[in-house]
Amino acid sequence: MESQYFSFQELCNITALPSQTIIEIVDQGIVEPEGTDPETWLFNTQMVSITRKACRLHNDLEIDWSGIALAISLLEELEEIRHENQQLKAQLDRFIAG
Questions:
Q1: Average pLDDT of 1-21?
Q2: Which CATH class is domain 5-97?
Q3: CA distance 21 to 83
């Protein structure tokens, strides 16, 4: 599946966020765009989603950006663990049924 990419300015427009907020999100490592500076940064669709989630956490829960970086990392890890758990349950079900 191909991923769509957005420039820095496109991400600002899509998320309705000021450029300084996007720069802070990148500086905190919440998203890691391709490229070396805002003029060359490229963000994939997953990064758009993460940026929106980060802003909701920042606005709704008043968490600082470094806390958001940690929260998003933990949420991603939780999602991976849930996925692995589903796979293991499916394997166990096949083993028991077999």
A1: 92
A2: mainly alpha
A3: 31
